Structures are given as structure tokens and as C-alpha cells.
Amino acid sequence: MFSLRDKKLAREIVTKIKKLDVNLKFMHVCGTHQDTLVKHGLDVLLKECGIEIGQGPGCPVCVTTQREIEEMLLLAQKGKTVATFGDMINVPGETQSLQSMRTEGYDVRTVYGIEDAVSIAEKNKDKDVVFMAVGFETTAPSTASVLLKKPPSNFSILCCHRTIPYALKALLDMGEIKIDGLIEPGHVSTIIGTRPYKFISENYNVPQVITGFEPIDILMAVWMLVKQIGNGKAYVQNEYTRAVKEEGNIKAQRAIDEVFEPGDIKWRGFPVIPQSGLMLKSKFEKYDARNKFADDLDELRDKEIKEPKGCRCGELLRGLLSPQECPLFGVKCTPDNPVGPCMVSIEGSCNIEYRYSDNYKK
């Protein structure tokens, strides 16, 4: 919500931008930023100022690939107890979701975090429990912390963690869309700090601002980007100083470094992005579900995993189109009957657009 002070500041920002008569395209990589933009009508307001802001690959559920979902489905079919977050449960695989498998009697659990999955393993020593570990640098420290505590031997993870900076590099290298500036995610940045983004501005001449999640945070980030561009500059600014430090969270970084190592990984809608994945180090391989249940997963080794028919989530995640430009949006694809993950996740651009648009309210 806007306070009176924020309203005054917002009006000043909007007035100043309009006077500059700009035509700029920015991108953010955070579902919460997208929620703020659409919920408060900032996307429409900023378009009137000559600024379009698109959502990139900032939804961890959305960028998780069909193959990873099929791996979890297969592990459930093989009799494993599988656990993950509520959004992941509902993402469709090729023929079904984890939610539909649960209705068929398979042991699929919804958890709020990895600790809940460990608790299930501790209480069910006769069951193999697999946690689907998704998320960016924000959730990776929790996974690392649990593995460092040596959970029970019947517990393992299907590691799907990814990191943001090299995904941004991939976007810029692909060159499919014009990106005049980047709004960097607040949650991720509390962990990694400001330094990992610097190579982007230095190598690609793209201004960046790390920002928080209030409407005034977003508007301040936009104004800071506009000023950088107007001054012919490109560097990393930190609007979210109340939470993000230059060095980030050192303790969390150490936990990540102790458990994971960077590796090449595919993102939904992208080719393999070098060094953008977090892979378990060899000393933690006993907790690696892919290693532990290699025989169970072998039938997926050479299988071609297809994307949902007609789904354009991959293009959305690369900023190539808006939800309304997908012919399935709001027709065949709704939160109650999602075709792709961008409509499932509360951080997905389709889900957000559907929830806040008057055209789709019941």
C-alpha cells in the first residue's frame, strides 16, 4: 500500500519520467515483483510513461523442466514417498501431475519446506522419502543446511536448484528481445549480495537495480534505471538497502558452497545454461535421488520429454510475449485447469494476470 509520503513520491517519479519522453523495455526476474506490478496497476501506469516491464525467468516453479517433473512422477510410481511445495504438486507432466497421482493413491506429500520432508522420513524409516528441491539462491541455503545436519539415510533430494545471474547472461546472449535495464530480485539478492550482477553491466552495458517489493520500491527502481540510461551509465544500484548488503549473506553462501557446485542445467524455455545449476558435491551423493535411484529413473534416460501442447510458458519466461498473447490463456488454461506452470505458480505471470484481471474474475 502507498502511504501519503509514498504517493507524493510516486507522483513525482511518474511526472519526471513522462517529461523525458522515453521508450524503454525493462525486465525483472521475480514473481513477487510481477505480483506488485499487476496488483497495483504499475504495469499500466508505467506503459503510459513509455516504459514496459516484462517478467523473465524469475519463477522457480516455472523454470523447472518437464523432465524433472517426470522424474518425480516416476519415483512416485516406483513406490517412493515424494514431497515438494504446493505449487509443484499441481504442475502438469506429460500425462498427469503429482496431484493427480495422489488422488490415485500414490504417496505424494505437500510440504512447506525441506524440514517437513525430513520429518516425514524420520517418522517413516521403512519408506524412501524424496524431496523435490526447487528454487534459486533463496531456497538453496535451506537445502544445504539440512544436508549438513546429516538427515536419515532414507531421505534424499531431487535437486532442481538454479542460480539467477547466468540465466540473465543467457537471456542477453540470446538477443531475442531488447532489454534496456534489469530489475534484480530482492530475495535472491539478500543471499548473494550485489557483486554477482556486476559482470552483466560491465560486459553488456545494461543498467541494473536491486529492489524491494513495495510499489514505491518498483517505481524507485524504474527511476534509478532511467537516470542511469539518461547519464549514459550502466552499473548495479541497490535500492533495497534495508535488506540487501553488498556482500550478501556470507553464512548462507558458505552453506551453499559446502554442499553444491555449479553445473550446466536446462531451464524451461531455454537451452542448457552453463554454470547456472547447483549440483550436489560428491560427498553428499548419498542424498542425491538421481544417484540413489538411478535404476528406477533409467527409463527416462533416452526418452524425449515433450512440453504441454500449445503451452507458451517457455516464450513467456524469455520475455517474448505477455500472457494475453497465448491463445490458451483464460480459455483452455486457467488456475483450475492449468496447461503449463506459469498458470500454476502464484509467481507465474499467467496466474498473476488471471488473478488480478477483471476480465477473468468470477
Q: How would you describe the overall organization of this protein?
A:
This protein is α/β, with parallel strands linked by helices and about 350 residues long. It folds into three domains: about 5-55 and about 165-240, Rossmann fold (3-Layer(aba) Sandwich), CATH 3.40.50.11750; about 60-165 and about 250-255 and about 275-300, HypD, alpha/beta domain 2 (Rossmann fold), CATH 3.40.50; about 320-355, no CATH class. The chain is built from 19 helices and eleven strands. It has helices spanning about 5-20, 30-40, 40-45, 60-65, 65-75, 85-90, 100-105, 115-125, 140-150, 165-175, 185-190, 200-205, 215-230, 250-260, 290, 295, 315, 340-345, 350-355; strands spanning about 25-30, 50-55, 80-85, 110, 130-135, 155-160, 180-185, 210, 235-240, 260-265, 270-280. A five-stranded parallel β-sheet has the order 2-1-7-8-9. α1 packs parallel to α13 (about 215-230) and α2 packs parallel to α19 (about 350-355). The protein starts with a helix and ends in a 6-residue tail after the last helix. The mean pLDDT is about 95.
Question: What's the number of domains?
Answer: 3
Low-pLDDT parts are none
Helix percentage: 40-55%
Structural class by secondary-structure content: alpha/beta
Mean pLDDT metric: 95
Report the CATH topology name of the largest domain: Rossmann fold
Q: What is the CA-CA span between the terminal residues? A: 24 Å
Give the number of helices.
Answer: 19
What's the order of the H and E elements? HEHHEHHEHHEHEHEHEHHEHEHEEHHHHH
Q: What's the arrangement of strands in the largest beta sheet?
A: 2-1-7-8-9
Sketch the major β-sheet: 5 strands, parallel
CATH architecture of the largest domain: 3-Layer(aba) Sandwich
Q: Based on CA inertia axes, which overall geometry fits? A: globular
Give the beta-strand count. 11
The CATH homologous superfamily name of the largest domain equals HypD, alpha/beta domain 2
Strand residues, percent: 15-25%
Per CATH, the class of the largest domain reads: Alpha Beta
What Rg is obtained from the alpha carbons, in whole angstroms? 21 Å
